[in-house]
Amino acid sequence: MSVTITPPRERECELCGREERWDDTTGGWHIADEPGDVFCIHEWDINGSFTPIDKPRSDQP
């Protein structure tokens, strides 16, 4: 049984609302629209609804 880890493709700061998107071409995060508060120590929602681990169901080989 293997586990697949899927990284997030977008994120939003809980403090200032800055939105970023992952860019496969450059291999990094890029600001989507507004930069938010440039002095903010960004707090990304790592405990939200996104689940990076995709476990196969027990009835699958």
TrEMBL record:
Residues 1-55 form the HEWD domain. InterPro entries: HEWD. It comes from the Archaea. Pfam families: HEWD (PF20576). This is HEWD family protein.
